[in-house]
Specification:
two-stranded antiparallel ribbon, 77% helix
Amino acid sequence: MIKRLYIKYKEIINYIIFGVLTTVVSIGTYELFNALLGRNLYLLNNVISWVFAVAFAYITNKLWVFESKSFRAGVVFKELVGFFGARLFSLGVEEAGLWILMDLCKMNGLNVGIFGFDINGSMIAKIIMQFVVVVLNYVFSKFIVFARKKK
């Protein structure tokens, strides 16, 4: 029963698993660069974290989520252009969302204690935007970048 469910929903399950891992890469590198460069450069730190997350996501999406098996130069180039183009769009959405949440909604001064951990407004804004980005990226990857042609 579980095996049949996994086979039926394999793509979505794998996308969720690798989406969570990509989010960990994104948030981890975001926090790393916030520590190294300062939280006042949160938009730059987000772009740097995006580079790491997108590289990780392309490899995992190609190999295990959408199972694109071709490594012909033309196919890989087309996938890379579509993947990075779509991710650039979602980066724009994320940057705008971070700016709105941090500067307009003043989340940058927020601190919340959850389970004994202090979470700052920058991290809360980043997590909120990660949910938006994950959904956008799935739609782009499924229906544009790794779309299978009907035979």
